[in-house]
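Hi R.,

Here's the chain you asked about this morning:
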Amino acid sequence: MVKSEIQNVKLRFGIIGNTDGLNRAIDIAMQVAPTDLSVLVTGESGVGKESFPQIIHQFSRRKHGPYIAVNCGAIPEGTIDSELFGHEKGAFTGAISDRNGYFAEANGGTIFLDEVGELPLSTQARLLRVLESGEYIKVGSSKVQKTDVRIVAATNVDFTEAIANGRFREDLYYRLNTVPIKVPPLRERPNDIALLFRKFASDFAEKYRMPAIQLTEDAKQVLTAYSWPGNIRQLKNITEQISIIETNRDITADILRNYLPAQTESRLPALFGVKPQGNGKGFESEREILYQVLFDMRRDVTELKKLVHDIMAERGSSVPVGGRPSDTDLHYIPNTSVSLVSDKQPVVMHTVSNVTPVANVNPVKISSGDVSEVQDTEEYIEENLSLDDVEKEMIRKALERHHGKRKNAANDLKISERTLYRKIKEYGLD
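And the predicted structure, written out as C-alpha cells:
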C-alpha cells in the first residue's frame, strides 16, 4: 500500500508516528479489512491497539453494520457468557426476561474482543464454536442461534505461556490468530515520542485554555531515552500533568525528570531458573527476588520429599545394621545443612541433631578416638513459610508500584483483574 494511503488512515483515526513497525501494522489492517478473516492484535498495554479494529471495520464491507467493543477483562466471570451470548428468562437468579448478547446485537457487523486472554475456559469453548460455525446457544436455552459477525481480538497476554499453563485454549488461539497484527511499544518508536508529546501538549492547551508547553533540547533527549513502560497512555498522562502543574511553559530536563518514575537498573546477580515478571520486566526489589526464591525452594523441597516417599514405598528396604549406608542406598537421606565457602577456606562438616533416617537404623557406636573429630551439633529448625503472607505482600507491592491501578497490577502479577479484586478483598487491601 502506498504511503499516502497510510497517511490518510493515520489522519482519519488520529494515529501519530512514522515508525516502520507502526506503518506495517496499519498496512496489514488495510489489506485484511475487505476479508472476513479473524484478526488478533497484540501489543503491550497502552500502545493503542483499539484503533486497529476500527480501521478494519471501517474499510470492510461491514462498515454500515454495528461495531461493538467488549472489554473481556472488565466483565465478571459469572455473567460473561450472558453478556456475550445472551440468556433466557429464568436462566439464573435475576434473569427476569430474555436478553440478546453482544453476538446477536453485532450480527452483520464487527465485534472487538479486547483483553481476550482474560476469558474463562468455558467461555473460550463457546467462542470457538462461533468462530468455526457461526453458532451459539443462549444461557439457559437449548436452541442454536446463528450470527454473522467478524471477530477482531486484542490482548497483551503472552499466549505461548498462557497455553502452556492451561489458561488459554490452543485451538482457539489459532482460530483468532488467522491474521496477526503486532503494534510496537513506544520504546521502539523513539522518533515518534516527541511528535506524540507535542500533539498531547497542543490538545491539553486547547482543553484547559492555556499556552502549550514546549520541551528544551535536553528535555527532548530525556524524553526519548526513557523506556515508557506504560507506552502512549503513560506519555499522555505525564503530558497532562505537566500542562496543568507547571507555570513555566518551557520544560527543561530537570523539570521533566520530576514527572518520570525512577527507573533503576538491577545490578544483582542473575538467578538461575527465576523468570522476570510481567511483560518482560524484572523484579523491582531484592525482597521480591527473595520471595520468588523462597517459592522455588519450597516447591523443590516438597518435590524432593515426595520423591523420597515414593522410593521408600517402592523398595521397602532399610540401611544395613551397624554400618554406614552405601552411596547407592537412597533410603538414608539425612537433613544436612550446606554452607557455601570459598576454595581457600577449610570445609567444616556439621552434624545435625534432628537427623531422622527414613528407615530403621541401629545406632552406630563411636569410639573415643572419633569424638575429637565430631564438631558441636547444630539444630536445624525449619521455618514455616506462610504462602498467604508472601502472596499478600507481593500484591501490596504491585499495587504500590502501579499507584493503585489494579489493571496494571494484575498484568504485572500475571493474574486476571477478577482474581486480583478477590485477593484484595480477601486480604483486606482495599
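The beta strands are 39-42, 67-71, 110-114, 135-137, 144-146, 150-155, 179-182, 214-215, 250-251.

Let me know if you need anything else.
M.
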